[in-house]
Amino acid sequence: MTSDLFRFAAPQAFFPIAGKLIPWFSILAGLLAIAGLYVAFFVAPTDATQGESYRIIFIHVPAAWMSMFIYVVMAGWAGLGLALNTRLSGMMSSALAPTGAMFTFLALWTGALWGKPTWGTYWVWDARLTSELVLLFLYLGFIALKQAIPDPVRADRAGAILALVGVVNVPIIYFSVQWWNTLHQGASVSLTRAPAMAATMLLGMLLMALAAWMYSIATALARVRTIILERERDAEWVRLQRAAA
Amino acid sequence: MMQAFAFIVRRELRLALRRKGDVLNVLVFFVVVASLFPLGVGPEPNQLRAMAAGVAWIAALLAALLSLPRLFAADYADGTLEQMLVSPQPLAVIVLAKTAAHWLLTGLPLALAAPLIGLQYDLPANALCVLLASLLIGTPVLSLLGAAGAALTLGVRGGGALLGLLVLPLFVPVLVFGAGAVTAALTGINPAAHLSLLGAFLAVSSLVGPWAACAALRVALD
Predict the structure, then answer these.
(1) Are the CB atoms for B121 and B182 separated by under 8 Å?
(2) What spatial distance separates the first Cα and last Cα of chain B, rounded to whole Å?
(3) 3-state secondary structure of B34
């Protein structure tokens, strides 16, 4: 069993299986997003205090969730690659980073659009917003470092070290910003929401979160396939594949 | 091992003192940046007092960033770094010694010059002492985490701007606690909690920084 699993650590073995999985995850992402958006727009009730504008959380919360989760997964792959010297791990962390950065940006953007009607301002220096912004900088640093190093093996290792240092720092940054925030801004806006959420709201959010999850897997697999092709372009099996296509 | 540490620190200091300009430039840069802020925001004393700590700390971050590429670059260019890597001494000791020398040459002078900036911003005496203390505890973190960043960007094109993108987000906790300590002292709160947290962060980065720098150097010279 384990040897079967480890077989897919070779890019050559992973390439076709990733290709077969992409349509499934894409279809799942599409169906879940349609169901989630239907619940979000037609089933979930209008919020008592925020009106219709609250509906942006159906995008915002899954995006914020994925932004943090993907960073941890990316650092996990990076650490695995550093420890076991597997080629695919570094490729996976490269493939995940743009999706993670996109979700971080999306979370900040939708948060700003939600903040304007609700808080009356696009941006506040709230602990969550600030640490999400720092997370975006960490993603951009990771991507920039990988792009600046031409040798892929060296780029993977350097990126892995940075991702691991970053993942140690993320909780420290979060708590430092939270404390800074309580020091500087007495009582301005609070993120605490209305006491309980209607069950349909929660359902819509969960469906959208699952859709975001499936979408992330599909895009990461698609991206890792192009990375594999690019790096292994001189390998025998890639040439055979090209001849067959 | 201690001998190797002391030897490398002495070597770095001697090399730096042969070219005093490099050391002084960083210090002058720090003072110039901090002196420009009042020209931009106006000379209102209350406003200046409120932003003094943040300005001093951000100027210190930028000054440290400016000096970091030199940490390994010269030794990398002439092959000394490779010899350090194959030497029987543990690489961590060598990296730690280089980091310590970097702090002695940039962090320490900055910290000692900071009260002068505090005076320009009309800080009271107790806040000046806290500013000095926060910089003394905090600037070693800049050298430790910065060493990892400098090692990661060694020999990489566009290294300077990239280094800023890599390490500045990691400096956020230092900035928050360092400037926070001074703000606390100004508002009459005991700054000990901030300084303790700064010390805790120093302890964490003295573990993480050299490890990451060693790993990155091995990657760079692979």
Answers:
(1) no
(2) 24
(3) helix
* DSSP3 helix / strand / coil % (chain A, rounded to 5): 80, 0, 15
What's residue A4's pLDDT? Answer: 65
pLDDT tens for A149-202 read: 988 888 999 999 999 999 888 888 877 777 776 665 444 444 455 445 677 888
Using pLDDT thresholds of 50, 70 and 90, give the confidence band for residue A74: very high
Give me the residues paired with residue A51 across strands: A47
* pTM as predicted: 0.88
CB contact under 8 A, B180 and A145: no
Q: What is the DSSP string of B28-60?
A: HHHHHHHHHHHHHH---HHHHHHHHHHHHHHHH
Min Cα separation A86/chain B (Å): 15
Half-sphere exposure of B84 (CA within 13 A, CB side): 25
Q: What is the pLDDT of residues A42-51, one digit of tens each?
A: 887 777 677 7
Instruction: Please tell me which of the candidates A82, A162, A168 has its beta carbon nearest to residue B166.
Output: A162
Choose among A145, A172, A176: nearest Cβ to B162: A145
What H or E segment, with its residue span, contains residue A20? helix A11-38
> Residue A123 has what DSSP assignment?
-
Yes or no: say if B170 and B60 are a contact pair by the CB < 8 Å rule. Answer: no
Amino acid identity for residue B103 in this structure: W
Q: Is the pLDDT of residue B187 over 50?
A: yes
Q: At CA A30, angle to CA A29 and CA A34, rounded to 5? A: 115
The ipTM, to two decimals, is 0.86
The total number of residues written for chain B in this structure: 222
Residue A137: its chain B contacts at CB < 8 A?
165, 168-169
Which residues on adjacent β-strands are paired with residue A47?
A: A51
